[in-house]
Amino acid sequence: MFDYSGCIHMHSEYSFDGLRTPEEIISSANSCGLDYIIITDHFSLEAKKYEGWHRNTLLIAGEEISPNKNHYLAFNIDKAVIADRTESNPQNYIDDVNRAGGFGFIAHPDHIGNRKFGVNPYTWINWDITGYSGFSVWDLQTDWQETLKGPLTAVMSYLFPAYFLKGPKKETLERWDKINIGAEQLKYGIGEIDNHEAVKKYFKFIKAKIFPFDVAFRTIRTHILLEEPLSRKKEDIGRVLEALRLGSSYISNDYFADPKGGFVFKVSKGKVSVRVPRRALIKIIKDGKKIIEKISDGIEISGAEKGIYRCEIFLKKYFYHPWIFSNPIRMD
User: Fold this and answer.
1) What is the pLDDT of residues 128-186, one digit of tens each?
2) Which pick of 35, 137, 221, 234 has the fewest CB atoms within 10 Å?
3) Are 238 and 274 part of one and the same domain?
């Protein structure tokens, strides 16, 4: 398998709250070694004019459909889907995206914001929906904003964000497992950074960029897995998006170590195996319950029963940090 890493969900100057041009963003992506990025401006596909390969990074344009609640990342569409800011039924724009030949993922479903630091919540509140491909399992902004407790933690977590990330929220993982148990079609997960590089002012005298793209791009990535290498042609856009839609991907925090090419998670009849490029804490989850936990560079289970499996990997750097989260695989 060919492993390509990228970052999903970011905003350019085409968003009301974005500052950077697509050219500046792609320059940062190249310097950070990303294979692809997906810009998702609010109600806009203006970045589509930049789609394609730029040196070593493939730029793809999607859209963040962003009413007051229930934000949705739409991919593989040619025209922006516009929803009223007060729209309360996300099924309407999910259907609009599907009718346009696209698909999508729910963005930052359990984002609660941070009132102390002036961050409003943008939670997904309507789960009585169908037709979506999956949702964000790990969001940089959701995770980081919840670490902000006071001036000291704010400064430290801003300077060393990767050390403060706690990983996907418990409620997000529990919902993911619950939705997939018994589901005819699995819902897949992605990682997102939701980055704007916006300048924020704190405590009246401190200004900070949240986050410089050179920082955000080194954290939460979504790796796609392909049978054949990318061709470095514009047709690769469809291949990347299809891998995301089908869950041929995994999520990782690449700050401490890039797992590219060294992480393998396989599920076949009666057998489950995990291999990681570094010794780490490995957890295997079956139908929402942990069935094994071990510090190793690999685990193999024989005689495994049918069910839905995924794995979680934690890498030790002073203490164990969340590192890799696989997509679910069904064993029939």
Assistant:
1) 999 999 999 999 999 999 998 888 888 899 999 999 999 999 999 999 999 999 899 99
2) 234
3) no
